Amino acid sequence: MGRGNLGGGFALLILVVSSIYQAAAIFHPISDSHRSAALDLFTPVHHGSFSSSLEEAYEALRTFEILGIIENKPDVGAATCHTVSETFRSTSSTSKDLYHASKVNSILKCDVDSKVFEGVVSRLQAAVSDAGSLLDFYYSIGSLVLIKDRTSKEDLHLVDAEGVFHSIKALSQSDGRWRYSSNNPESSTSAAGFALEALAGVVSLASSEIDQSMIGTTKSDILKLFDSIEKYDDGAFYFDEKVVDASDHQGPLSTTSSVVRGVMAFAAVASGSLNLPGDKILGLAKFFLGIGIPGDAKDFFNQVNSLACLESNRVSVPLILSLPATVLSLTKKTPLEVRVNTVLGSNAPPLSVNLVRASNSGSKGASIIENQELKFDPENAVYILDVLPKGVDVGKYVFVFEVVLHDSELKKVYVTGGQTQVPIFVTGVIKIDNAEVAVLDSDLGNIEIQKKLDLAGENAVSLSANHLEKLRLSFQLTTPLGHAFKPHQAILKLIHETKVEHIFMVGSSGKQFEIVLDFLGLIEKFFYFSGKYDMQLIVGDAVMENSFLQALGNVELDLPEPPEKAPRPPLPVDPYSRYGPKAEISHIFRSPEKRPAKELSLAFLGLTFLPFIGFLVGLLRLGANLKNFPTSAVPATFAILFQLGIAAVLLLYALFWLKLDLFTTLRTLGFLGAFLMFVGHRTLSHLAATSAKLKSA
Amino acid sequence: MARSTGKDAHALFHALRSAYAATPTNLKIIDLYVGFSVFTALTQVAYMAIVGSFPFNSFLSGVLSCIGTAILAVCLRIQVNKENKEFKDLAPERAFADFVLCNLVLHLVIMNFLG
Q1: Which residue stretches, if any, does this entry annotate as coiled coil (chain B) (predicted)?
Q2: Rounded to the nearest 10 degrees, how much is the dihedral formed by the CA atoms of A83, A86, A91, A97?
């Protein structure tokens, strides 16, 4: 018994926490601002036709059709119909072209010869049998469905409906997604949308009923697909692709629209219900409505088309609760108005709206109102709460509404979303009274001068004080219901004649606001400037209707003389120069060493060569000769190679100094060194042998 | 007295000169080489004294290359000199090979340090 209670209590706690956690947000159904935006966005490029692409023409026409403004565009019909006929007639049109042409045709109802239709139908039937990928099926089956509707040909059937159903089903994955073709292993959520729409087309084109078990498996596929739905904090649900393919990335809007189209199309043709949770459908509606007015034509079409699919679907029709105004004024006594509509703005079935509770955002918990029912005004189709209950004061509130359908049978058809949280601001006039400013004696607190202020009107008090005195400003703020009020801003500003400003915050305790400026401590802050200071009081808040900036008057301050090293106020900075380019920084480099004159260096270079010349001269004088140079061929070669080797090494060193780096040098030196060692060894051992022979001989 | 010291110095100088004339030619060549490299070093020192030691590493590498090669030449002279009993068994070609090798290593280091 105790454990059951505990479990129940815990569940209740989780429910309460999760309901608190859902952020308060408002969604508005489609309105006239959407319609005017659509007219701006989808403007025909040439007179009479929407660009050359039938796909874009279809998107524009369908958007106007849904928003109910298609009558405004009669001139586009002729040229677009011409393009449609051309596409039907041409033998090179792909099934994608035929699909878009049939889509446009179903809206514009062009006059096309029935023979042309027959040709198209036979081509499409062939395309269905030859189809290799999901999109081939989608375009050809979709075109056939549209042509059947347009020409009302009851005998238009798919040749092998069950076989086509199987082929499309074969591309499905276990998580509810679909692959685009059997070659492509990647599955996609948008592909699931296309597949479901194609399957719905197959069911409607079948001559005999499709096996119910296959329809059942498709329904479970849809449920699995809905397991992968994602959620935003404000209650919007959406689908997104798992794998982000950078080149082909569709984005959540087009993915979700594709899925919604497919699911609703399938739900329309499948017998029996789909058992999708209503809050997810409502969440999808919130996702589309939460976008607002898209700026891109394709996004706009996706949004409006998906909302049209949700508007009247066989699963559950979402009803959106919206408020035209979320700011209520206590002075103007604005009534609280609530609307409940479908996503496209149409009227909802009979229902009642209850205000379950209203709680102040600041103080947690305490609810002001409990279960007020709102009155229905049939003329404007709004639910009104005329008079706010007595306990509602200025501030930020969260109102929780609940929508209850009158006919409980309709609960299966419509989804209302339980309790909806809406943030509401209640504004009012804040009363200010007992405002006075006084100059006090520092030691004892005796009042020297005291002046009363009328903060509602003009003031021009004139006070004087010296550095030993204090200035006190005090006033009271009361809400319309008599409670204490703490505004966002309560600031006292003192402005000197030289335009130097000082800002002080006014502190409060309960209703009483007071600030005491002790000039003895503020002398340095005021830069020792004596003279006239203008006083300004600024009190403001978001919910305060009478926020003000009032000049109170002036106070003549007598401060002591500034000492030698008094701080100066910061110079007023020209705002344009503050963010302009800064001064150029001149870098100070280490001054280069003094180098000797070029001539001196060259002279010494010459002098350096002198000892070498002396060495050569001395060699000549000593009679140095090359007599010992080997004369026979092989030793001579080695000897020459030895000399060349040494010369090569010295040349390598010269190159090393000029441009090579150490590693290249070492590598080359390695090779040269080895060579030199070998050659030198041969030469010198030959010379040694020769001289040994001479000695012994 | 000055005159007798002058005459003594002259006689000493003469004696030294005649003694030196007796040294073999190859040793004289080596002596000449040593003198040449020392003079080159002195020229560099004189230059540094005039213009200051700014790229000090260059100065050091120049001077030390001259001094180093002079020292190696002196070692060669010691080893090649037939009157030196210590190095009787060492072939002069071997000493020369050592001289060449050490010079090459010295000059590699010098070139690296020259900068």
Answers
A1: none
A2: 20
